[in-house]
Design brief:
mainly alpha, Helix Hairpins, about 0% strand, elongated
Length: about 100
């Protein structure tokens, strides 16, 4: 006898909220620029999970379409973000956010 457990939209939204809160706490608490960058990506992934869950609930592909769009935006953000991080890390020894005021000079 096997029982199946179906996941509802609430399960996906709770999981998405947990991921978003973890990412938000990482952005607010951590000082390492790479960790902050990864936490922003985690927050964007949580939003994508919510979009897909709402698309599944409504029975349309709009959620998946918006998720693909945000993945494209995240890829562009990652390319620009890593470029800025690499340029700043050449001027500063560490990757601490407090040391990144070199653009003011």
């Amino acid at each position: 006898m096997s029982t199946y457990f179906t996941l509802s939209t609430n399960h996906y939204l709770i999981f998405s909220a947990i991921l978003f809160i973890i990412g938000m706490m990482g952005v607010l608490v951590r000082r390492n620029i790479l960790i902050i960058f990864l936490c922003v990506e985690l927050m964007m992934t949580a939003v994508n999970i919510s979009l897909v869950a709402f698309g599944q609930q409504t029975g349309t592909l709009y959620g998946q379409g918006f998720a693909i769009f945000t993945i494209a935006v995240a890829a562009a953000e990652a390319a620009v973000g890593f470029g800025i991080i690499m340029a700043l890390s050449r001027r500063v020894v560490g990757v601490d956010v407090d040391e990144f005021n070199v653009l003011r000079d």
